[in-house]
Recover the amino acids of this structure.
């Protein structure tokens, strides 16, 4: 199905791409992201108040499933004007899509995942075609959008655009928040500092994005023949770009393996890609992760990682890597 989605965003090399991308960027531009900070803080605080109560009652808690994963989903629903669906269902659909398209599931597992992805596609189709979306919502903006030939966007392409935005906007950001929390909890002295040192949370998030981004690789196809580092690639060559490695390049970063939030060139990595498909959600992802870290450190000042030093279970797909559990006590 993924291969059959009509060209919309990441899978679109046609002249309809810039216009569709503008619709997405309009929802996640710097002004909108700044205006969303109070919303992100409120949702984070809600989730972490629950976490605090559960830790007081049970002694331990998983900050991945109960916080890191849910925060971006609820923020996205708010920004895109989506309601009437449980965030847990959207997360299940989005994660199933990642595993089906970027994992190596057994045949039996592929069938289970295909069921979930099919449900996701049907829900997106119903939602996009319902005609009931509020006028300021993403779905309504897509319905108003005109293609370069002046025609309105067809429903299948609108569904394809929603599919990319939903997956990109929630799973990857949840994965980033999980790694940010895990590394911050393990770094001596950092947890209390982020609550009172302005911009430390932002800088810590950037170092995590540089060193351990959730999107480790990305597939691309060469549009024309190109010479790259002495190798000639023909048009149509299938590439796997090692985005994560760009943040640990010793020619760019001094002591790349060291977490150093005061680096002057902290953003010189390719974790969000580059060029005409560069991630339009980068600013939202960075902001959500910094808010998540600051509110977590403020609300849960005494938590410590459980099983310190041990490797947690990891999500490891062709293009996505992150801890699947951030257990604290
Ligand atoms: C830490 C979180 C995130 C990471 C690491 C990430 C990374 C990426 C990467 C590597 C690409 C491909 C870039 C390229 O081909 O050059 C991409 C594309 C994209 N991302 Fe993100 N992303 C994140 C969060 C988000 C969020 C929050 C949204 C939306 C709210 C989003 C929406 C998109 C979309 C729509 C595309 C396709 C853009 C196009 O093809 O024009 N991403 N992202």
């Amino acid at each position: 199905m993924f291969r059959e989605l009509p060209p919309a965003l990441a899978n679109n090399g046609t002249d309809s791409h810039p216009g569709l991308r503008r619709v997405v960027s309009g929802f996640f531009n710097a002004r909108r992201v700044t205006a969303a900070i109070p919303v992100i803080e409120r949702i984070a605080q809600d989730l972490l108040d629950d976490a605090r109560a559960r830790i007081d009652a049970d002694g331990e808690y998983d900050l991945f499933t109960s916080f890191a994963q849910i925060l971006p989903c609820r923020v996205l629903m708010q920004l895109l004007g989506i309601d009437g669906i449980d965030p847990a269902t959207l997360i299940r659909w989005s994660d199933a899509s990642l595993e089906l398209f970027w994992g190596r599931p057994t045949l039996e597992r592929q069938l289970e995942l295909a069921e979930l992805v099919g449900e996701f596609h049907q829900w997106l189709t119903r939602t996009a075609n319902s005609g009931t979306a509020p006028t300021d919502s993403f779905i309504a903006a897509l319905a108003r959008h005109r293609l370069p030939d002046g025609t309105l966007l067809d429903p299948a392409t609108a569904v394809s655009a929603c599919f990319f935005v939903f997956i990109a906007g929630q799973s990857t950001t949840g994965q980033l928040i999980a790694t940010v929390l895990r590394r911050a909890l393990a770094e001596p002295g950092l947890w209390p500092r982020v609550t009172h040192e302005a911009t430390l949370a932002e800088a810590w998030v950037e170092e995590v994005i540089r060193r351990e981004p959730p999107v480790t690789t990305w597939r691309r196809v060469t549009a024309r023949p190109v010479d790259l580092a002495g190798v000639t690639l023909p048009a149509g060559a299938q590439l796997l770009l090692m985005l994560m490695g760009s943040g640990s390049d010793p020619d760019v970063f001094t002591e790349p393996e060291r977490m150093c939030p005061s680096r002057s060139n902290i953003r010189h990595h390719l974790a969000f890609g580059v060029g005409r498909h560069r991630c339009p959600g980068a600013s939202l992802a960075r902001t959500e992760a910094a808010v998540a870290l600051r509110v977590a450190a403020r609300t849960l000042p005494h938590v410590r990682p459980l099983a310190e030093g041990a490797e947690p279970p990891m999500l490891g797909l062709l293009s996505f890597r992150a801890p699947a559990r951030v257990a604290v006590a």
